[in-house]
Design brief:
There is one protein chain. It contains twelve helices and 13 strands. By secondary structure, it is an alpha/beta fold. It has a single domain, classed as Alpha-Beta Barrel (TIM Barrel), CATH 3.20.20. The strands form three sheets. An eight-stranded parallel beta barrel has the order 3-4-6-9-10-11-12-13, surrounded by four helices. Strands 1-2 form a two-stranded antiparallel sheet. The longest helix has 21 residues. This is NADH:flavin oxidoreductase/NADH oxidase N-terminal domain-containing protein. GO terms for molecular function: FMN binding; oxidoreductase activity.
C-alpha cells in the first residue's frame, strides 16, 4: 500500500489515499454564508485528491468563529454546496462535510458557548458562558438538522470537528471542562455530547460514512487533558463499538509551557499518537497535522494510518497528488494569503 492505492474510507470508495484537510480560508464573501463560484473553482482545482474534507461548516449563527465562513444550516446553502459536490463527483473525487462549532474560539459572538465559563488564556477571545443542559441539547439538535441538509446536498460523508480546542474538544479536555453534571468530570461524562451527536447522525447517515476529527495531544487554544490516554482509549473504544467509519487524528508537537500555559510538551503525553490509537479503533484512520508526504507513506506502510490529509500543502499546490507521484518540488506555502479575501493565494 502507498498514498496512491485506492481504498475505502468507511464505505466511501476513494481513488487514492491523499485527502485535502478541512481549512478555514475565509473566502465566502456574502452575509448569507452561501458557497460561491470562486469556492467551487478552488475545490475543483484539487479534485485529484481521493477525498476532500470541506472547510469547517458552522451549525448556526451562534457557532461562527470568523468572517468569511460558508455554512450548511439552511436550504439555500445546501443547494449551493450540492453543485460543488456534483462537480467533484464527475471528476471521481469524494467530498465529506465537516460540521464545526467554534465554542469559545470566537469574537463574532459576544458571549460564546462552552462547557465551562473559562476564557482562553493569553488570547483575544471573549470569555464564554457555561452551557445549560438545554443549550447542550440544542447544539446536538443542530448537528442532526445540519446532517439532513448535508445528506440532501449529496455529500459522501460527514465529519464532526472534535479537535483543536473548539466546542466538542473543550468538552473532552479537562482544562476547559470543569462541569459537575452529566457532561463533566469522568471521561464517560466528558465524552457524552460527542457520542450523543454520533448516535443522532447515525439516524441520517450510514454509520460507515460518519467520521470524527480528534487531537489527543494538542495545546491549541488552551486545550489540554492531564490523562489523554485514558480519555481517548474510552472515546475510541466507544466509536469502535458504534462501528464509526473513520477518525482523523491530528498529530501535534507543542513544546513545554507553550504560550505560558504551563502544560508539558505534547510528545510527553503520547509520543506516537497514531501508533497509540491504531489498536483501539478498527475503522479507517486518517493521519493529519503537518505530516509530510514522506512520513505519510511510512505511516501507511506501517498500517498506523490508512490515508493522510494535507492542508497547507494543498493551498499552494492544487496539483499536489501529481507532484507527489512524480517527485516534483512543492511550492512553498504563502502564509500571507491563507486567511484573506479574493482569489490571490486561493485560485491558482
Amino acid at each position: 500500500m502507498n498514498l496512491f492505492t485506492p481504498f475505502t474510507l468507511g464505505s466511501i470508495k476513494c481513488q487514492n489515499r491523499i485527502g485535502m484537510a478541512a481549512m478555514s480560508r475565509q473566502r465566502c464573501d456574502n452575509k448569507e454564508m452561501i458557497p460561491t463560484q470562486m469556492m467551487k473553482q478552488y475545490y475543483m482545482q484539487r479534485c485529484t485528491a481521493g477525498f476532500i474534507i470541506t472547510e469547517g461548516l458552522p451549525l448556526s449563527l451562534d457557532s461562527i468563529a470568523q468572517d468569511g465562513s460558508s455554512a450548511i444550516f439552511n436550504i439555500n446553502q445546501a443547494q449551493a454546496w450540492s453543485e460543488i459536490v456534483e462537480a467533484l463527483h464527475q471528476k471521481g473525487c469524494k467530498i465529506i462535510a465537516q460540521l464545526w462549532h467554534c465554542g469559545r474560539v470566537t469574537n463574532q459572538i459576544k458571549t460564546p458557548l462552552a462547557p465551562s465559563a473559562i476564557k482562553i488564556r493569553n488570547s483575544k477571545y471573549n470569555e464564554p458562558k457555561e452551557m445549560s443542559i438545554d443549550e447542550i441539547q440544542e447544539v446536538v439538535k443542530q448537528y442532526l438538522e445540519c446532517s439532513k441538509l448535508i445528506k440532501y446536498a449529496g455529500f459522501d460523508g460527514i465529519e464532526i470537528q472534535a479537535s483543536s480546542g473548539y466546542l466538542l474538544d473543550s468538552f473532552l479536555k479537562g482544562s476547559a471542562n470543569k462541569r459537575t453534571d452529566e457532561y463533566g468530570g469522568c471521561v464517560e461524562n466528558r465524552c457524552r455530547i460527542v457520542l450523543e451527536i454520533i448516535d443522532k447522525l447515525g439516524s441520517v447517515f450510514d454509520i460507515q460514512r460518519i467520521g470524527i476529527k480528534i487531537s489527543p495531544i494538542t495545546r491549541q487554544y488552551d486545550s489540554y487533558d492531564p490523562n489523554p490516554k485514558e480519555l481517548y482509549k474510552y472515546l475510541l473504544e466507544q466509536l469502535n463499538q458504534r462501528k464509526v467509519g473513520f477518525i482523523e487524528i491530528r498529530d501535534d508537537d507543542y513544546p513545554e509551557n507553550w504560550l505560558d500555559f504551563g502544560y508539558p510538551s505534547s510528545k510527553s503525553d503520547i509520543e506516537n499518537v497514531f501508533e497509540f490509537c491504531r489498536p483501539l479503533f478498527k475503522g479507517q484512520i486518517i493521519g493529519n497535522g503537518k505530516v509530510t508526504p514522506e512520513r505519510g507513506e511510512e505511516l501507511i506502510k506501517k498500517q498506523y494510518c490508512d490515508a493522510i490529509t494535507f492542508g497547507r500543502l494543498f493551498t499552494s499546490n492544487p496539483d499536489l497528488v501529481e507532484k507527489i507521484k512524480n517527485g516534483e518540488k512543492l511550492n512553498e506555502v504563502d502564509t500571507s494569503t491563507l486567511l484573506s479575501q479574493g482569489p490571490k493565494g486561493y485560485i491558482c
